[in-house]
Structure formats: structure tokens, C-alpha cells
Sequence to fold (281 residues):
Amino acid sequence: MAIVYLNGEFLPADKAQVSVFDRGYLLGDGVYEVIPVYAGNAFLLDRHLQRLQNSLDGVRMTNPFSNETWTNIINKLIAHNNGGDQSLYLQVTRGVAPRDHLFPADTAPSVYMMSNPLQPVAESWKIEGIKAITTADIRWMRCDIKAITLLANSMMKQLAHDAGAQEALLVRDGFLTEGSASNAYAVIDGVIFTAPKDEKVLPGITRDLVIELAAKADMPLHERAISVSALRGADEIWISSSTKEVVPVTLLDGEIVGTGKPGAIWQQMDTLFQQYKQEVA
Ligand SMILES: Cc1ncc(COP(=O)(O)O)c(C=O)c1O
Fold:
């Protein structure tokens, strides 16, 4: 039985209980992080904790812990679940209060963390690439906050699944924002494009790393919005996330992307990414 952390306690998952008045349960009032763990080490933890702080600030919640305390609890949870490669999920909700839209005055936040085995990225995804669809981005205008309220993301991911695809690429006002659970990129004439950081996209930790790795390797990259028509003509399309890393998309809405195989620029980025992971982990 996996061990989870809930409000100060480490306990078997089936013993963890939260109140039905928790605002996370009733209102989706909370924020979260997903952190990959390689060989027992939380990858880019400082960056995840900084984004957590930004999300908490964005919804006017006080951070319940210092970074030192977070690190401590996270490392204990990793150890309780036997180290190795894990996918660590943590969430902070505004806590237990009578149901009301207004924020309660002095409610202690609820903190929950769990760990699941990190599923390795399927080899076929790297050899063949994945299928994606485009769909209207039906989310709110604070997608920069990593809110637990993921109904829109679930609906869009389900559309992709229904179409036999692995990811939905989201379109707002004719431009690609990101994926339903990933950031998105297009490579056009040797230049990598990804939407700029604003309230329409999640500032992905993997996205930041991709940008840094590209800069170090002199690979041209622009943080610039990509129109759907440019996307359809792109030589390569990729997505990225903490648990999926950088994945090539080779079929978009049933049309072949580029050569129909993962592209050379993705290959270069994946190599840099794997090298970085090895060095850090
Ligand atoms: C909507 C969305 N965008 C982007 C990402 C990628 O972010 P990260 O690289 O920090 O995992 C995620 C990750 O789950 C996501 O849900």
C-alpha cells in the first residue's frame, strides 16, 4: 500500500480521509504540483516549489510551509515509498469551512501528497511519435495558476482519447496555447516556437528547461504564439511535461506532421534533455 502524506501524517492511502467540507472537494479551491522523482531525487524541486508559491499567491493562499519544510516532507514521502522513480503529486487546498464562495478568514489549508510509480515514456512514442487533435481551449483566463480545477482539461483530453489520440492541442483565438496536460511547440524552418508565458498557459517547468537547453546549444527558439495555420504547416510538433518529458507529435487531426517521423530537432532536444537528467539525477 502506497504511503501518502495528509496534514502532518504519513499513512497508508486507504487510511487518509478529508472532510466533505474541504474547499478543494466542494469548490476545486486549491493548487497542485506534479514532480518527477528519479533515483529517489525530486527533479528540479526548487522550481516546482517556486511555481507552487506563485500559484498560492495567485489564489491568495498562504504557503503553509517553508521550502525547507516542503523539501523535508517530500524526501520523507519518497523514502516511505521506497525511492526509485516516482511521480509525486502534492496539493494545497484552502481547507475546511462552511460552503461559501468568499474565502474564509482563518482556515488552515489542507496539504495532501501522494506518490505513484513514474511510468517510463513509451518507447513507441519516441520512435513513432504520438497523435494529437486540435480543439478549442475552453479554460479560464488564469491558466498560469496550477489549479486543481481540471474539468476543462479533462474534457479536452477525453476528446483526444475519443479520437484515438494521446493529447489535445488547445486553440484560443486562432493560436495554439498548449496541450491539455502539456506545453506545446512547433518547429518551422529550423526555429522552435512555443507560446509566451502569460495567463493563457501554464509556465511548465519542462518548458523552461527546454528553453534553457535550446539556448545553451544555440538552437533558435522564440517564445511567440503560433497560429493554427502555421501549426498545420510545421515541420515538427512537440509537447512537454514533467512526467512525459519532450514528446514528438507526428499526426495532427489525422494529417501527417513533417515527414511523419519524430524530427531531427526533437531528437537533438531529447538527447540534451536526457543528458541533463542524467547529470542532475
Ligand atoms: C496544462 C498544462 N500545461 C503544461 C504542463 C507541463 O508543465 P510541467 O512541465 O511543469 O509538468 C502541464 C503539466 O501537467 C499542464 O497540465
